[in-house]
Amino acid sequence: MSRKRHKPEEIVAKLRQVDVLVSQGQSVADAVRSIGVTEVTYYRWRQEYGGLKSDQVRRMKELELENQRLRKAVADLTLDKLILAEAAKGKLLSPARRRACVEHVMQTLNVSERRACRALGQHRSTQRKVPRGRDDEEQLTTDLIELARRYGRYGYRKISALLKDAGWLVNDKRVERIWRREGLKVPARQPKRGRLWLADGSCVRLRPKHRDHVWSYDFVEDRTHDGRKFRMLNVVDEFTHECLAIRVARRLKAADVIDVLSDLFILRGVPGHVRSDNGPEFVAKSVQAWITAVGAKTAYIAPGSPWENGYVESFNARLRDEGLDGEIFYSLREAQIVIESWRRHFNTVRPHASLGYRPPAPEVLVPRQPAWPAAPPQPAPPARLAVAQRPTLN
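User: That's the sequence. What structure does it adopt?
Assistant: Structure tokens below.
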């Protein structure tokens, strides 16, 4: 026989019945036996509901239910607060950002998708929908980036107009979305600068267009083991990235600059421009007059602006990092030999990322291999290419 579960109103009625029987002279044990429970149950009921009436029990039950609802509401608010605190900072305006945020909250707090979506304001159908990009998205992005590169001072609205003129059926909002996704922005307005005929030798304005169009040169200093200083005059072809010469000597003056340039002009021809900073050896009247006399033009960068001579400055950094920092030169002659060996390695072997990981002046040209025959009898193993060993600067 299953045990009966008494309601609070029934318990109060039975307690009142026992009180009446006891007041009539019956013992507590007989009165408890008459209501069909044990004395242990009676005293437990009396401790919990003793002195209460039916309306008071009903009110207590309502208060308990309200207390449970309040606890649940507080727990829900606390969980929502944790979800919002775990979510990304700022406004989640796009469904994609909310989708990623919901997934992060589900993994971090171990909550259901329903709860996370409700707290973050994301519809569950939107959360489960797989976004599908348009077929022309990639081509539109490519054209937009190309126009932004060509017209650097244009914003996305003007770029949108240019795209429409080119035949694209797009609105400004879609162009703005791609614009922001690719991180494009109108650069800060640069200070006005003169044109090339106003002696502006920056590598931003005067760009190399072909071999021997623009050369650049600069000085680098180092010391031998005895602490004595020596200088290096580096000459670089900006278009091919080839190091044309490195003159190493204790002292290098304007006459030495003319000597190095004259040897290179005889060997390779006269370049269109020679870029340099405003060092005394480069701005000397004798150097300027000699360069002008042979048919070249000087291009001087702005004072205190080494970034305008970026090609040779980049080469100087490579020379310092890959060559000079790992060597101890015990004599000037040793420095001349080792640095010249490094220069040849730089030109003929070292791969350059800007040239497709090829050296600027390789000594060996590998021809394209012919297609394999349909059924070769015994194809011979391909000949192993001779790779020049990188010189050790020690």
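The longest helix spans residues 54-86.
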